[in-house]
Amino acid sequence: MKPKRKKQLTTFLKIAISFSLIALVFSELDWKEIGDLLKIANPFYFAGAVILFLISQVISVFRFNIFIRKIGVRLSFEANSKLYLLGMFYNFFLPGGVGGDAYKAFALSKSHQKSLKKVGQIVFVERFLGIVAIGFMFCVLILFVQTPYAIYWNFGISILGMISTLVVLKLIIRFLHTYKKRIYIGFFYSILIQLSQLISVYFLLKSFQIEGGYLIYLLLFLVSSVLSVISFAGLGIREAVFYYGAQWFQFNGDISAAVALSFSLITAAVSFMGILYLFQKIPLKKK
């Protein structure tokens, strides 16, 4: 299968998965209860959730910068932020077009006369570190979840996960040995990104006056973040994981889905800001 046709098929499948899951979950939700919940939502906590999400994206800009500087690409924070927002817009609103990461790699390769393969490699590794950080945070949080086998089961998963994290980081360094220091720094930034988003979800939970079960919700969020790679922009997957996961743990599925949907809407709103730079030339050469 040709690469272009394969990409189109992958995009179609992701969109199909997202819309199928959204239709499935939305058909089971009690919208009256969700409407009542939104009426009593605490706006200060909700605003805090938005701010923490924005902070996570700012950290992402800094993470990207430490890698591109290694290959001689110098961007101002303003230009880097604009490029990042435009990438978010491509990823969220243009499923049939150029992916945000691919666009960033192409734009920087062209503007700085750098190898597209080398820039693309950096973009991939940066994103992959984010997935590794999600796994690491999951292993940390599961230590504090109460289960009948908490002492052995949770501890075993955590230790195995942390060892796996170290092994993966070593493999990345072996693959990109000249980036050793930046790999560790990038991983630290990735932890900060996930921590910011976890706090953002916590604020959403508080906004909807959910009391208790916070660790379970945060673990569900991390699971949905990993599974989002098989859907379009995480839509559908996050709502489904929260809805059915909440039922599994005997929580209110409607409230849980409302939290997931709110996070998706925040992501969409921030991503839409990238349209400002769709037709505006971003100065990719630092003066």
From TrEMBL:
One cellular component (GO) term of this entry: plasma membrane
Keyword flag Ribonucleoprotein:
no
For this entry, the protein name equals Flippase-like domain-containing protein
Q: Which UniProt keywords apply?
A: Cell membrane, Membrane, Transmembrane, Transmembrane helix
Membrane-spanning segments: 12-31, 43-62, 83-103, 123-145, 152-177, 183-205, 214-235, 255-279
Q: Which NCBIfam families match?
A: flippase-like domain
Subcellular localization: Cell membrane
Pfam families, A to Z = LPG_synthase_TM
What kind of membrane protein is this, topologically?
Multi-pass membrane protein
